Amino acid sequence: MKKIFLLFIFVVSHLAFCQDITVYLDEGNELISKNKFSDAENTFRKGLKEVPENPILKSQLALSLINQDKNDEAEKVIDEILVKQPEFTAALWYGGINNFSKTKPDFRKAIYYFEKAYNLIDPNSQQYFAVNYYVGRSYRKLLYREGLTYLEVDRMLETYKKYLELQPNAEDSIDAKNFIKKVEEKRPGKNVGKWIVTQQQNIEEMINKTTK
């Protein structure tokens, strides 16, 4: 899903023409597309010297930092944007990506950001299938780490199914379908406070066997 990191470049670039930031935005985004993330960071920082509070440049700066594993710096930039514009979708998106992808992921925080962005994303965009993937996948990770409530399992299944509906030929579609099937077969009732799957390896092996 790494390519999804870049999707908001195309969304935010259309917002830039009312401000004198297009040179920095275009140059920085081009560098990101070439995986020159440090150079992109420098470009966005130059632009921010001219327009220090521009949320578009700040969002793309956060993206360049995420791709360098500078997750704490990226989080700080994202927070700065959201303090002033709580529904700035690109910042919410990158907040989710940042917490999902870092070395020690914070899946709860990733879900928080993605859910904040969920209703702001165009259902006809590629971002929409991606946000369903990330929410569903984050809950899946949490099922094995700390457990989920009945309602959280519902949300995991809802978003995972939506992802499969929108991307039926995705590389991980068979795995996702089998995971959903196993969850629906094995999940406990509403009377169970939290359901945690402690035998992740065994379950993953069962899923893998059914795909062969």
Report what the structure shows.
By secondary structure, this protein is an all-alpha fold. The chain is 69% helix and 0% strand. It has helices at residues 7-13, 22-33, 37-50, 55-66, 71-84, 89-101, 107-118, 126-145, 150-166, 173-186, 200-211. α7 runs antiparallel to α8. The longest helix is centred in the middle third of the chain and has 20 residues, at 126-145.
In short:
The chain has 212 residues and is mainly α.
Structural class: mainly alpha
Topology order in helix (H) and strand (E) letters: HHHHHHHHHHH
Q: Report the radius of gyration as a whole number of Å.
A: 19 Å
Large-scale geometry:
elongated
Number of helices: 11
Beta-strand portion reads: under 5%
Helix coverage percent: 55-70%
Catalogue the unreliable spans: 2-7, 205-212
End-to-end gap:
23 Å
What's the overall average pLDDT, rounded?
87
Number of strands: 0
The largest sheet is: none
